[in-house]
Design brief:
elongated, single chain, about 375 residues, nine-stranded antiparallel β-sheet, two-stranded antiparallel sheet, 19 strands, 2 helices, mainly beta
Length: about 375
């Protein structure tokens, strides 16, 4: 039996960023102090080279997090996300009444004034005429900012704008159990593996209009499904005539800008087996039965999660995101753009191959010693 605690601290860790999400163009900066710590437990019973039963159990827990340091200009990599959140908050009545509080300070609407309605020329309309565009965020609660000095889950690519990275790396909980029965030339070895706790989530996932840039209306705001918090008056916007918020709007399922790594991926359990037979001293036949049993369960339960999914992320980098309020009443919305995170079950993907439910496979090989 072995118990192995470990800790690794890295100063000036390189954090990768998307410079152009649509083309996958990336770069990195030395802006992180990363800590990875945990403990591994191993239990061995018997001898895998001898006849009889042998077993090996390995359990590992890893807590990996990063704290972002200041850039030479005094800002941090978290500040652009907070600027995007403030850009949304600027349209709320709270920021209109209290423009100096932290979630609002330094932000402004496109027109420069927060109002319950805007004319189709982009001017504030506090009377909310029936021909003015109702502000869908006026009655919404102010969203909290990210802590620039906080500890965050480790990501291959730092979450940026909509369509950027949403998935962390590394599973905090991993386990492997091997059990072998050996009798002379024959060995049967089933293997059970478990992965759990990988984080995902990003503040920028959902598209949203800038109401003071809309030049068209489509009907009364009352009863419009895009106005989750109601409207003082005015008309619903025609999204085809509107500009968009760079950082989008809150996740429509959680009603907030999700924290970095806010959710836990499903747990995956896999069973494999290897059967080997020594035909002679130089020739062995090996049969590997992969994914005899492969299932996913658990993880964070939200309005967008589905049964059987093994992973949640983005299909591709670019501008893909939840449709948010970029639609007009009566539009048919495809499921592909109706959730902030896409569920994956069995799609082929090089960076998620260990996290997907792949089919049962049989592999036969002959090993010859010269």
């Amino acid at each position: 039996m072995k118990i192995s605690p470990f800790v690794r601290k890295t100063q000036n860790q390189i954090q990768n960023f998307f410079l152009n999400q649509a083309t996958g163009f990336t770069s990195g900066l030395n802006v992180g102090n990363q800590t990875s710590q945990g403990v591994e437990f191993e239990f061995d019973k018997g001898n895998f080279a001898r006849n009889g039963i042998a077993a090996k159990l390995s359990l590992a827990y890893t807590n990996s997090y990063i704290k972002y340091t200041d850039l030479p200009n005094g800002t941090t990599v978290v500040d652009p996300i907070n600027a995007q959140i403030k850009a949304y908050n600027a349209y709320t009545s709270t920021c209109a009444a209290h423009p100096t509080i932290a979630p609002c300070a330094g932000a402004a609407t496109s027109s420069g004034t927060a109002a319950p309605c805007y004319t189709t020329a982009g001017l504030p309309d506090f009377g909310c005429a029936t021909t003015s565009v109702a502000n869908p965020y006026w009655n919404a609660p102010v969203q909290a900012l990210l802590d620039p000095n906080g500890n965050y889950p480790t990501f291959d690519y730092f979450p940026g704008g909509i369509g950027g990275a949403v998935d962390g790396y590394g599973a905090p909980y991993t386990a492997t159990f091997l059990l072998q029965y050996k009798h002379d030339r024959l060995a049967i070895t089933p293997a059970l593996q478990l992965f759990a706790g990988q984080r995902y989530g990003s503040p920028a996932t959902t598209l949203g209009v800038q109401p003071d840039t809309c030049t068209g209306i489509v009907g009364p705001a009352a009863g419009d499904s895009r106005y989750n918090y109601g409207a003082v008056g005015g008309a619903g916007f025609d999204y085809t005539t509107c500009g968009t918020l760079t950082g989008g709007i809150p996740d429509p399922y959680t009603r907030k800008f999700d924290a970095i790594g806010a959710f836990s991926q499903p747990t995956q359990l896999q069973l494999h087996m290897q059967i080997s037979y020594d035909v002679s001293k130089r020739v062995s036949l090996v049969v590997n039965l992969a994914n005899i049993f492969n299932t996913c369960f658990g993880g964070s339960k939200t309005g967008f999660t589905v049964n059987g999914a093994c992973y949640y992320g983005l299909v591709t980098n670019g501008t893909t995101g939840d449709v948010g309020n970029l639609y007009n009443p009566g539009s048919a919305i495809q499921p592909y753009v109706n959730t902030p995170y896409e569920p994956f079950v069995g799609q082929a993907s090089s960076d998620r191959s260990g996290l997907l439910k792949v089919p049962f496979g049989v592999f036969v090989s002959a090993r010859v010693k010269l």
